[in-house]
Amino acid sequence: MRALSFVRDDVCVIERAVQRTVFVTVCRWRGWEIGPTVHQEREGLWAWSVVLRRLRDERCGLVVVDSIDRMASTDVGRVAVLALLRREDVRLVVVRDDIDTATPDGCRLVDDLITMPGPRPLIMQ
């Protein structure tokens, strides 16, 4: 399976390198093909629309991120991204948080995060 990496660019160069290293390491460990990296160019779901296009265009089967905090800069943003990926049926692996939406535990955790009470982004189903 070919994997795509999402890297936030609002961190220092060393942190970007760490994110890439984590991606390459998990791909090698799980036997996945190392695919492209999408660098966050703008905040919000715009960056993730690029991910969705690249998944399709590059024929990747999943997205790998270093940690859930790397998905967006706010909790509301992270929930919006999780909901988007769930709605688009995209497999997500969050390495440091041990989340894989291909597993029942990973799916339940993401569902719990999406449905937690509190401030919610406007997400159209």
- Major sheet: size, sense and barrel closure? 5 strands, mixed
Alpha-carbon Rg, integer: 14 Å
Kindly estimate the percentage of residues that lie in beta strands according to DSSP: 15-25%
Full CATH superfamily name? Resolvase, N-terminal catalytic domain
Could you characterize the architecture of this molecule?
By secondary structure, this protein is of the alpha/beta class. The protein has a single domain (2-115), classed as 3-Layer(aba) Sandwich (Rossmann fold), CATH 3.40.50.1390. It is built from four helices and five strands. The protein has a five-stranded mixed sheet with strand order 2-1-3-4-5, with helices on both faces. The radius of gyration is 14 Å and the shape is globular.
List the helices and strands and how they pair.
Layout: E1 2-7, H1 13-30, E2 33-39, H2 45-57, E3 62-65, H3 75-87, E4 92-94, E5 99-100, H4 104-115
Helix pairs in contact: 3-4
Short synopsis of the structure:
This protein is of the alpha/beta class and 125 residues long. The chain has helices spanning 13-30, 45-57, 75-87, 104-115, and strands spanning 2-7, 33-39, 62-65, 92-94, 99-100.
Core attributes:
5-stranded mixed beta sheet, Rossmann fold, alpha/beta, 18% strand, 125 residues
